[in-house]
Amino acid sequence: MKIAIVHDWLLGLGGAERTLKVFHEMFPEAPIYTFFHNEKFTKEFLPQAQIKPSALQKWYNLTGRHRWLLPFLPMTAEAWDFSEYDLVISSSIAFSKGLVLKPRTKHLSYCYSPTRFLWDWNHEYEQRGWVFSLMRHFLRIWDRQSSHRVDQFVAISKNVQSRIKKYYGRDSTVIYPPLTLPIPSLLSSDRTKINRDDYFLIVSRLFPHKNIEIAIEAFNKLGWPLVIVGSGPEYKRLRAMITNPSKIRMVGEVTDTDLATYYLHAKAFILPQEEDFGLTPLEAMSYGKPVLALRRGGALEYILEGINGEFFDDPHPATLADGARRLSDKYAQYSPLDIKKTAERFSRERFEEEMGEAITEIRTSQC
């Protein structure tokens, strides 16, 4: 089959981009179509890939603001010509699933989430005025209608699967995304041999919906060490909230090698936000670390209380702090080896096998 891959935009590194890279390595000859990209990022992250940006690339280069281009994404998705391909795989976080394809070209959409800002974040966007609300209304109509052009949906989690059914009325199969950081082959059952420090760890893009501020507020009061890895528009505001820089450190973006070191030396990992799935908690588990997570979203599919982590029930500093205390009190009960077994269920080999089966199924259906 002649295959093309479509990803909405390539502006920085996250779980969706890590999964896209696996798709690229599975199908290295397949070009990657995208609405627009940060050329410096793609040259470093996907140096061998054939990147094909849309006509919107020149406008992104001029403005540097991808949100200004949102109203033009549906017509851009529909304008792409994929007539020479047998299969298109959309690695979709928003509009890339809305392609118009000829009957012979099949479309498999690996869906990270139904378009979040259209369906799930009404409260966050309701103060932006009637013009923005009207735009979102028409985009929602297009988003739902265009979802019926997809031949087969694959969801990244049961959580996303239920939302695809709710918002699009479509069935889907679940194939969990792969872990791509190197997983240690051996872990000692002796905690002292795998921990050099006593800090809690967060790895996240720094956006308002990530709830990083509640972790900072909680650890300001606890007086415990916290390390935050990641960058984003909230960086300066969050850094200004820290009352004791010797205890709470923001280290920005790091290499994968340094990230692995942070995981290895952490006491535990914190997921303060609701995630569609959440690769970073599983990355921490691959290093034998327990996870404290908000009791919502994809985390419900792999965190077992008292086995590989704990939950807190509300996105509030006090409840997060209470969860951190509970995890610390139980710390000696966790087995790094048992925690690592959770992460092993999400291997790259498993992902490639299951995606291969899905592609074979859609290929068979066109015969």
Explain the layout of strands and helices.
Layout: E1 3-10, H1 15-26, E2 32-37, H2 39-45, E3 51-53, H3 57-63, H4 73-79, E4 87-92, E5 106-111, H5 116-119, H6 122-125, H7 130-147, E6 152-155, H8 158-168, E7 173-174, E8 200-203, H9 212-222, E9 226-229, H10 235-241, E10 248-252, H11 256-265, E11 268-271, H12 279-286, E12 291-294, E13 309-312, H13 317-329, H14 336-344, H15 348-365
User: What's the β-strand tally?
Assistant: 13
Low-confidence stretches: 186-195
Using only CA atoms, what is the Rg?
A: 21 Å
Q: What is the residue-mean pLDDT, rounded to a whole number?
A: 91
Shape: globular
DSSP summary: helix tally: 15
Structural class per helix/strand content? alpha/beta
CATH C-level class of the largest domain: Alpha Beta
CATH architecture of the largest domain: 3-Layer(aba) Sandwich
Helix content, binned percent: 25-40%
Outline the biggest β-sheet.
Answer: 7 strands, parallel
- What is the terminal separation in angstroms? 12 Å
**Strand order in the sheet with the most strands:** 3-2-1-4-5-6-7
Number of domains: 2
The share of residues in extended strands comes to 15-25%
CATH T-level topology of the largest domain: Rossmann fold
Q: List the helices and strands in order.
A: EHEHEHHEEHHHEHEEHEHEHEHEEHHH
